[in-house]
Amino acid sequence: MNKNTVWTILGVIGAVVIAWWLVNILFAVLGLIVKLALVAVVAVVVYFSLRAFFRSGAD
Length: 59
Description:
Blueprint: H1 3-58
């Protein structure tokens, strides 16, 4: 094995490690965004449900 082959193998391994790390971060951020969106939707539904419940109870 010559020197260029060793550097190529190390470069490929480094690229895979960095890509794995970046994809991990990307999925964590996307997961957080999806959770926040779901919480917002559920909060709006609960808010309007409670508002309707208390409005009809006051009549």
